[in-house]
Write a structure and sequence with these properties.
Radius of gyration: 21 Å
CATH class of the largest domain: Alpha Beta
CATH architecture of the largest domain: 3-Layer(aba) Sandwich
Distance between the termini: 43 Å
Structural class: alpha/beta
CATH superfamily of the largest domain: P-loop containing nucleotide triphosphate hydrolases
Largest sheet: 8 strands, mixed
Number of domains: 2
Strand content: 15-25%
Number of helices: 11
Order of helices and strands: EEEHEEHEHHHHHEHEHEEHHEE
C-alpha cells in the first residue's frame, strides 16, 4: 500500500463570542490507498468535524482550521483556493452524509442530480451523462435504472436513497470516499447490503474509505484499521483484528464492553459512566480521566502523549508509558 492522505496535528476550532472551542485538537492520521479506515467514538468526540475538515466544509462563520496539514496525494488541502478545492471535491474526494433524505434535492429527479454531477465534474454531454447515470444506478443494484432516473427522492425508501447517494459519490471514481454514519437510519438487513456494496465498490475502483461511525458492528464488517477519538483527540490507533482481540485504552475497552454479546448471559450491558466533556470545558490532564476507572494522580494533572506501543499501534494513556521519575 502507498500513502493517500496524511493529517498532521490538525486543529479545527469554533469561535463563539470570546470562547475558543477546540472541536478537533491535534489529530494525526494516515489513510493508505485502497484501505478502509474507521473513525470511532461517541457523539461529540470530533469525528464528523475531522471529516468536514478534510473536505474544507467546516461550518462558517464560526468554525476554522487553525493549524496543521492535510496532505492528499502530496498536496496540502488547507492551502488550496476554494476553486481548487471545488475540483477536488467530487472528483478526488467524495462524501456520503448520514441522512440521504436531507442530502438529496427534493425537487430534482434522481436522474437530474446524477447527471448534474457528471456534467460538472466529468465534462460529459447531457446524453453521455444520462447513459453514465443509468450505468451507475445499475452498479449500485437498481434493476430498473431507467425508471429510477425519473423518480424523486421521496419516492424511494431509505436504503434506496442511500444507494443513490453512493452512486453520486462514486460517479467520478474518487480516490477517497468519506462515509459519515452511512447506515445509521437503516434497518439491519439494509445496513448489511449497503456495507457489502461499499466493500465491492472500494475493491472495484481501488477507492480508500474513511468510515465515520459509533457502531462497532459496522467496523468489524468493513474496516482494516481503526482510529478511536475522544474529546477531539485520537486516543488509540489499531488494526481491526487487534481492536477486537485486545483493546488497550480504557475508553476503547469501555466501548467494546458496551457491545451486546451472544456468548455472555449477563442481564445488564456495561456502560461508561458520565458523558463526553463539552469542547469548551475540557478537564485538565487526560480528557477521559473523569470517567476512567483506571485513572490515577497523573491522569488528572498531565495530558498523555499518543505513543507507539508496537509497530502499527498507538495509544494515548499513562498506563502504557514508562513512568520513570513519576511517583
Amino acid at each position: 500500500m502507498s500513502l493517500l492522505l496524511e493529517m498532521k496535528n490538525l486543529k479545527t476550532h469554533f469561535f463563539r463570542k470570546k470562547q475558543v472551542i477546540p472541536a478537533v485538537d491535534g489529530v494525526d492520521l494516515v489513510i493508505q490507498k485502497g484501505e478502509t479506515l474507521a473513525l470511532v467514538g461517541e457523539s461529540g468526540s470530533g469525528k464528523s468535524i475531522t471529516s468536514l475538515s478534510i473536505m474544507r466544509l467546516v461550518p462558517s462563520p464560526g468554525g476554522k482550521i487553525v493549524s496543521g496539514e492535510i496532505l492528499f496525494d502530496g498536496k496540502n488541502l488547507i492551502n488550496l483556493t476554494e476553486n481548487e478545492m471545488c475540483r477536488v471535491r467530487g472528483n478526488d474526494i467524495s462524501m456520503i452524509f448520514q441522512e440521504p433524505m436531507t442530502s438529496l434535492n427534493p425537487v430534482m429527479t434522481i436522474g437530474e442530480q446524477l447527471t448534474e454531477t457528471l456534467i460538472y465534474h466529468q465534462k460529459l454531454t447531457k446524453n453521455e451523462a444520462r447513459i453514465k447515470a443509468k450505468e451507475l444506478l445499475q452498479l449500485v443494484g437498481f434493476s430498473r435504472a431507467e425508471q429510477m432516473l425519473k423518480n424523486y427522492p421521496h419516492h424511494l425508501s431509505g436504503g434506496m436513497r442511500q444507494r443513490v447517494m453512493i452512486a453520486i459519490a462514486m460517479s467520478c471514481n474518487p480516490k477517497l470516499l468519506i462515509a459519515d454514519e452511512p447506515t445509521t437510519a437503516l434497518d439491519v438487513t439494509i445496513q448489511a447490503q449497503i456495507l457489502q456494496l461499499m466493500k465491492e465498490l472500494s475493491k472495484k475502483f481501488d477507492t480508500s474509505i474513511l468510515l465515520i461511525t459509533h457502531d462497532l458492528g459496522v467496523v468489524s464488517e468493513i474496516a482494516d484499521r481503526v482510529v478511536v477519538m475522544y474529546g477531539g483527540q485520537v486516543v488509540e490507533e489499531v488494526s481491526v483484528d487487534e481492536l477486537f482481540d485486545k483493546p488497550l485504552h480504557p475508553y476503547t475497552r469501555g466501548l467494546m464492553n458496551s457491545v451486546p454479546s451472544m456468548e455472555e448471559n449477563s442481564r445488564r450491558l456495561q456502560t461508561i459512566e458520565g458523558n463526553v466533556p463539552a469542547p469548551e470545558n475540557m478537564p485538565k490532564g487526560c480528557r477521559f480521566a473523569p470517567r476512567c476507572k483506571d485513572a490515577f494522580g497523573w491522569c488528572h494533572q498531565e495530558m498523555p502523549d499518543l505513543k507507539h506501543v508496537s509497530k502499527d499501534r498507538s495509544v494515548r494513556c499513562f498506563l502504557y508509558e514508562e513512568m520513570e521519575g513519576r511517583k
